[in-house]
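Lecture notes, unit on protein representations.

Consider one protein chain, 212 amino acids long.
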Amino acid sequence: MMKFKPISTSIITAIFLNLMFPCFFGTQEVSASGASLQLHSETRLVRTGDKLKIQVTAKEVKDLYGIQFQVDFNPDDLLLEGITGSSHFTVYPTKSDKAKKADLIVALIRKDSSDTSLKNRLSLAELTFTAAAPGRTTVNLSHIKTVTTETFTNAGGKKDLVALPLGSPEKVSVVISGKPLSHPAPPSSERPHHQNGNDAPGHSATRTEQPL
């Protein structure tokens, strides 16, 4: 079983300070050519009441230690049921009213701080929604902030975490259709069976014998 290096309270505090508050003394960024975030859903068509799951992943990233983003969606169309971190990340909601809010800000912290290797594709989290109303709607991420485990001394003489620039993801578009009919048509095996068209509606089932 893989053992992760524990994250100290001071490290978590430093990450949140770097993510949630602008740095007044300037920032440093590592080179991250091609690094980006992606949103993916297995389906783009759901019915009201259905669950919609959207995966958040990063591509071509090295030492992505902490990330914060805002989940943007229309609460009239979708209800946010929860956010689950992947096996590599722990979710730290930064708002207590996380459910069903369209301006939810979430932070993710990597569990294994020693794993700084390049990842071609790294699973971060899964967003779970319930479709609420018919129509076309979108889900996107904004206000994205990321940091690595590298540190530097800022102009104020304090240690900061080095930022990791990531390209913004393309939004996910979803079509929500209405609920199915409450009284669906019976299966074909239960429908009346007509032979040769003589038993069809409007026709008598009695045949008249013609004289020879």
